[in-house]
Amino acid sequence: MSIIRLMRAAMIFRIKPTKKLTTFDRKLAASKMLSSSNHTPVSCDAPLNRRSANYKPPLWDFNFVQSLNSEYLLELIDDLQKMGICYHFEEEIKKVLTSIYNTRYKSKKTEDLYSMALQFRLLRQHGFLLFQEIFDCFKNEEGDFNPCLGEDTKGLLQLYEASHLLTEGEETLEAAKEFATFFLRKNLEEGTVGVLDESVRHSLEMPLHWRVPRPNARWFIEEYGRRPDMNPLLLEFAKLDFNIVQATHQQELKHISRWWKSAGLAEKFPFARDRLVECYFWNIGWLPGPQNGYLRINIAKFNSLITIIDDIFDVYGTLEELQLLHDVIQRWDIGSMNQLPEYMQMCYLALNDLVDETAYHVLKEQGLVIIPHLRNLWKDLVKVYLQESKWYANGYTPSLDEYINIAWISIGSPLMLSSALFLKPNPTHKEATQILMEHNDLIRWSGIIFRLSNDLGTSKEEMERGDIPKSIQCYMNQSGASKEEAEEHVRGLIHSAWKKMNQNLHQKDYCEFARIFAESGADLSRMSMYMYEHGDGHGNQNPQIKNRISNLLSELFIV
After folding, report:
1. DSSP characters for 102-150?
2. Residue 51: phi, psi to the nearest 5?
3. Which residues are CB-contacts of 297 (< 8 A; sequence separation ≥ 6)?
4. Of the candidates 124, 11, 15, which has an alpha carbon nearest to the alpha carbon of residue 76?
């Protein structure tokens, strides 16, 4: 089903004919068709003396006609994205946005706040070069956003969402975010937002740019169904697609569950978190699409081993044992495995087997030798695990910068992102290694957002059970700040990291493979904020994450 067909069907529910055809209209159209099909050429030998009515040139020239656009089209694209079904229409959406960029945006036509902000957000999100100055028309003589816009809740909501695509130095978008946030909260308190109440609350809780489409699709589908202008065809399509994709995810989870039970790791490591479903749930968010089934399955296995090894270093192992495990993994020598305690032998063997199995699959399917890359990623992870264990054993509290320089790796984000890069369908070895070298900043900022989101959600429980100081405690120790001040500082660091991330996402010289990788890094960041939004969604199985997993993996939409 193309987006044009879907839009045509959608318009049936929204647009009524403005004119009824008369008998004369039908006869005229029929005669034109008949004359065109039975046309006989006329000799042009003798010049004909023809009259002229001296009509004036058209009022509506080509450029004007091409600049025409229905706001409904942009809203439809926005709805498709929010409900997680835009992957069906990627080429059509790209063509529509390209046309809008080449006509409407470049015409520099002044529009209302809602239209301008929606247009800006969608175009910039899809990689089009737009500048913050397009919002200058909404400022007063003092250079501030005009306070009269404070009553336009619909426009403010779009401005708020658009402002989160800002990069470093974009002061207008920074001001737009503060302006929109202030008035949206004010309007909520005064009860003047009307039917947008739930949408405003949802956005203020977390902006759209920080949300992962698939895990949030159910909320958006349900919200769309309550809208007075909703399209029944589009709603039914979104629900059916949700159920179909859910069935695919269920089969993948069953496959991983059989592997987990066969490996017996949960029984062998009773001290560690048995979080197989959560490990898979992560990948629904940042590895969407039917082409990524193998990726979701394999990275879930990696994530399960990351969780076990993390608990060995954080909770169970002595410093002497951890040093042994670190050394064996650095050598990656199966023959030295007998130097390890028995429980570590099984862990190392499971890791070795999974790396070999993954590398074999990629060599068979794509002809790439990736085993050195996979081993190096695990070596890097275990190296920082050991450093953190030494800090804890020595009672050492690092500075915030010292902590972050290690913690963005120990969160596991670089390993998952880089592994996924080599496992994606159809990369070349040269492409994959080049992307890792050229886009290390993207991996770093994704890891920092992941780590700081984790710290905000898990710091209290981890400190109570005994763990190294996290970013909050490091900043408190370094600056003398209160816990509340430290948490606010960490949130500010997340905002700053998103500006850096946005800069990477807006690069125009990306090849298609690099663009997909950049979006995967952003989606992993989004998923981390989603998992730790209400506490530790990975380790503690809080009610919110339990409900979210159930909604996405087991509860069908009734169509």
Report:
1. IIIITTT----HHHHHHHHHHHHHTT----GGGGGGGB-TTSSBPGGGG
2. -85, 160
3. 252, 255, 256, 280
4. 11
Closest residue by Cα to residue 86 from 238, 296, 285, 281: 238
Alpha-carbon torsion (67, 70, 76, 78), positive or negative? positive
The pLDDT tens digits of the residues spanning 407-464 come to 999 999 999 999 998 888 765 666 777 777 777 889 999 999 999 999 999 877 766 6
Q: Decide if 482 contacts 468 (C-beta within 8 A).
A: no
Q: What is the DSSP string of 89-112?
A: GHHHHHHHHHHHIIIIITTT----
Helical pair 429-438 and 413-423, crossing angle rounded to 10 deg: 150
Residue 460's pLDDT is 72
**How far is it, in rounded angstroms, from Cα 107 to Cα 66?**
10
Instruction: Answer yes or no: is pLDDT of 244 > 80.
Output: yes
Q: Report d(CA 243, CA 245) in Å as an integer.
A: 6
> Helices marked H in 312-399 — which ranges?
319-331, 342-366, 371-393
Let me know if 361 is exposed, middle or buried by CB neighbors in 10 A (0-12, 13-18, 19+).
Answer: middle
Written as one letter, the residue type at 37 is S
Q: How far is CA 209 from CA 8, 101, 289, 507, in A?
A: 29, 20, 19, 17
Per residue in 53-104, pLDDT (tens digit) is 676 676 555 554 444 555 679 999 999 999 999 999 999 999 999 988 888 7
Q: What is the pLDDT of residue 505?
A: 87
CA distance 444 to 454: 15
**What single DSSP character describes residue 196?**
G
Residue with tokens 């909770």: 315
Hey, what domains does the chain have and what are their CATH numbers?
Answer: 71-210 (1.50.10.130), 244-553 (1.10.600.10)
Kindly report the CA angle at 169 between 167 and 174, in degrees rounded to 5?
Answer: 75
Mean pLDDT of 493-500: 97
Q: How far apart are CA 369 and CA 113, in angstroms?
A: 52
Nearest to 529 by CA among 426, 455, 422: 455
Is the CB of residue 244 less than 8 Å from the CB of residue 329?
no
Q: What is the pTM of this model?
A: 0.86
Chain centre distance of CA 270: 34
> Which residues, other chains included, contact 325 with Cβ-Cβ below 8 Å and sequence gap of 6+?
312, 317, 340, 344, 347, 348, 382
Which pLDDT tens digit goes with each residue over 518-540? Answer: 999 999 999 999 999 999 999 88
Q: Burial level of 408, CB count in 10 A (0-12/13-18/19+)?
A: buried
| pLDDT at residue 465 in the model | 66
